[in-house]
Amino acid sequence: MIPQASLAAALAEKRSDRRIDVLRHIQDCGSISEAARRVGISYKAAWQALDTLSNLAGVELVQRSVGGKGGGGAQLTADALLLLEAADAMGHAREQLHVQLEHARQLPAAADPQARAAGQAGISVATTLARLQVMTSMRNQWPCVVAQLSRSGPLVQVELQGADAGAQFVLHSHITDESAQLLGLRQGLPVLAMCKATAVTVQAASEAAALAPGSNGWQGKVTRATRGGTVQELAVRLQSGVQLVGFSRQASSLRARSAVQVTVEPSAVVIALSGE
User: Fold this and answer.
1) Which of 7, 69, 173, 208 has its CA 20 to 30 A from that of 184?
2) Are 127 and 4 in contact (CB under 8 A)?
3) CB atoms < 10 A from the CB of 86, how many?
4) Within 13 Å, how many C-alpha atoms sit on residue 75's CB side?
5) How much of the chain exceeds pLDDT 70, in percent?
6) Are 221 and 269 in contact (CB under 8 A)?
7) What does the alpha-carbon distance between residue 96 and residue 124 come to, in Å, rounded to a whole number?
8) Residue 71 in this model has a pLDDT that exceeds 90
9) What separation in angstroms does the CA of 219 have from each of 144, 195, 252, 262, 264?
């Protein structure tokens, strides 16, 4: 099983958001292409970062000038500068909290029992708090570690292993190369894999077809079945211990303890950084 980091160690890790890094370098050099080079991503990925940030902020963050004496360039808007200030403030608060927790962890047993308990409890709290930062409608969320990356044209095939279930839970995701760059995906990186319950297909194990290499499919047993119209919503516990929710696409008589096969298209699996 992959060990969980302490809360202090998790907060000490200076994992940067490459989208914010693009803004910082545009502020420094006034060029999107140069900012991309400094961050270590493609020009296309840098534009994806800017588009995503603008969508999230609801305003334009970069103004471009074309031609002219300087040959054109890019300049941050006042809103972008405010966003960078907020990011700096959050980073400072994170560092301060890390210092406090590290101090609590090093306290002798007789000193301040509550503070000492907080430091010791960090092993389980760290990962949980980091994962809770990601709020989404996707009901299936699995803490994973990147096991392998394979590039094929504009796509990257990502093989993930369950962080809590170990190598017994293997999951595949297909994402664009730009997304892989912006996430900074690399072997061993902790991530959060997610998919909607409606993307999960559940069928009786006796009726399941053979799985193709690189596909997502697992054996398990139904723990809860809810019928609604012609479909069933099913909660399933996999052999690895992982829990998930999906649907039976056809009228079926699946019930609690029924043996089933669960499948998810790799393109339906979303990868997020939880900050742990």
Assistant:
1) 7
2) yes
3) 11
4) 7
5) 75
6) no
7) 20
8) no
9) 19, 18, 17, 6, 12
Q: Residue 240 has what pLDDT?
A: 87
The residue among 160, 153, 195 whose CA lies nearest residue 177 is: 153
pLDDT tens string 219-255: 999 998 887 667 889 999 999 888 899 999 766 778 8
Domains of the chain plus CATH, in order, are 1-132 (1.10.10.10), 140-194 (2.40.50.100), 197-265 (2.40.50.100)
Residue 57: which residues within 8 A CB-CB, separation 6 or more? Answer: 79, 83
- Give start and end residues of each alpha helix (H) in the chain: 7-12, 18-29, 32-39, 43-57, 78-105, 113-132, 177-183
Task: Write out pLDDT tens, residues 159-210.
Answer: 999 886 556 899 999 999 999 999 999 999 999 899 999 999 999 998 888 8
The amino acid at residue 154 is P
Half-sphere exposure in the Cβ direction for 67 (13 Å, CA): 0
**Cα–Cα–Cα angle for 88, 94, 98, rounded to 5 degrees:** 145
Long-range contact pairs involving 212-217 (C-beta distance under 8 Å, separation at least 24): 214/157, 214/172, 214/266, 215/172, 215/263, 215/266, 216/171, 216/172, 216/263, 216/264, 216/265, 216/266, 216/269, 217/261, 217/262, 217/263
**Directed axis angle between helix 43-57 and helix 18-29, to 10°?**
100
Indicate the average pLDDT of the chain: 81
Q: Which secondary-structure segment (H or E) carries 204?
A: strand 200-204
